[in-house]
Amino acid sequence: MNSERHYTSDVVVDTRQAFLTIARALDFVGIDDVHHAHRVAYIAYECGQLLHWPDIKLEKTYFAALLHDSGVTSSKEHLRLLGAMRPDDAQAHCDRGYAALKANRLLSGFAEIVRYHHTPWSELKDLEIDEETRDITALIHLSDRVDFLRARYAHETHPEAVTLYEGLIAENILSKKGTLFEPNFTDAMAQLVNIDGFWFAMDYDRIEAIGLEFQSYKPFNHTLDIHEVKDLALFLANIVDAKSPFTYHHSQKVASIAKMLALDCGLDETNSDMVYVAGLLHDVGKLRTPDEILYKDGPLEGVELSIMKRHSVDTMITLDHFFPDSKIGQWAANHHEKIRRLRLSLSIKGGTA
Ligand SMILES: [Fe+2]
Ligand SMILES: [Fe+2]
Ligand SMILES: [Fe+2]
User: Fold this and answer.
1) Would you identify the CATH topology of the domain 14-220?
2) Catalytic positions
3) Ligand 2 is a single-atom ion; what residues have CB below 5 A from it?
């Protein structure tokens, strides 16, 4: 019990803040189509409001939608899922997401939703799952496909041009009412997509701000203890490691070695655990690195090298968001300052300042 108190007093991590940081990192997997999960969360949340769902159900829907594609490991797979209304082999990422979420105490409540988020309504309606899970799953499926249609019609044009295609998007989803999509939700969504303001308000920062205001979803209304922090970091580390098949469990190995060294150097258990968490997350910025650069068989050059190099700064930003008031956040900030000073001294030496 004493060690619990010792841990929580040293590691102060807000659950919603940590969760939204994870969601932001996950959304980088899209590379050329970032923020897909955020848009799906927004679309589902807005449609749920139209359906008069209670706050607690709306909030769970929003959080589940942010995680719905957490089983997607590569930018290639992400693009494939946004390439057709019923993509091939969609179940593979649902199953991977389900397994990862099920193993996480804080996130296991979203596992079933993620497992079935591409299941057609004609099958979903007969599955033995509770009513709330079925509703949220069906709405996330529909919202996900609305974002697919947005990408299809507004591709390579100004984002606002999607309003020119509202009728086509509504027509498309209505043609699958009762087969692919739940009938009542489809009717509500068809109304929603015909409102210009619905599309104009689909702004990334605004979507994230919606989640920070939530109060009803109880599992997120507390401060994380170190065990939950380690669980969340492990969840994210496994996604990073799955993206690079050449480095199996790389983040876990780095974390374990770093913790051993920290203990060897005389750090106490709490601080060594924080070093362990930092090790788990040290490559999280790689979620934003395109597959072809990560997998390149040969030296990186020019732009490729620049893209690869930015992952350390993306990692730092993620850590800073995850641990704004902890020592890890401070380490990240200090590290940033060191990089800035190093860059400055290098540019002065090189005569470019
Ligand atoms: Fe998906
Ligand atoms: Fe998706
Ligand atoms: Fe690494």
Assistant:
1) Hypothetical protein af1432 (1.10.3210)
2) 286
3) 69, 144
The pTM score is: 0.85
Dihedral, 291, 294, 296, 301 alpha carbons, nearest 10: 110
Helix 327-349 and helix 311-322, axial crossing angle in degrees, nearest 10: 150
The Å distance, Cα 283 to ligand 3 centre, comes to 5
Domain ranges in the chain are 14-220, 223-349
Q: How far apart are CA 57 and CA 65, in angstroms?
A: 12
Cα separations in angstroms, 273 against 8, 21, 259, 277: 12, 20, 7, 6
CA of 120 to the centre of ligand 2 (A): 14
Q: What is the pLDDT of residues 111-150, one digit of tens each?
A: 999 999 999 999 999 999 999 999 999 999 999 999 999 9
- Which helix or strand (DSSP H or E) is residue 14 part of? strand 13-14
CB atoms within 10 A of CB 307: 16
State pLDDT tens for residues 31-78.
566 789 999 999 999 999 999 999 999 999 999 999 999 998 777 787
Q: What is the 293 CA–ligand 3 centroid distance (Å)?
A: 15
Distance CA 83, CA 86 (A): 9
Q: How far is the CA of 318 from the centre of ligand 3 (A)?
A: 15
Between these two residues, 70 and 190, which has the higher pLDDT value? 190
Q: Whose atoms come closest to the Cα of 92: which ligand?
A: 1
* Averaged pLDDT for residues 260-266: 94
Q: Summarize the chain as % helix, strand, coil (round to 5).
A: 70, 0, 25
Q: Of 125, 145, 141, 127, give the one whose Cα is nearest residue 64.
A: 141
Q: Which two tokens stand for residue 309?
A: 């190099």
One-letter amino acid of 147: D
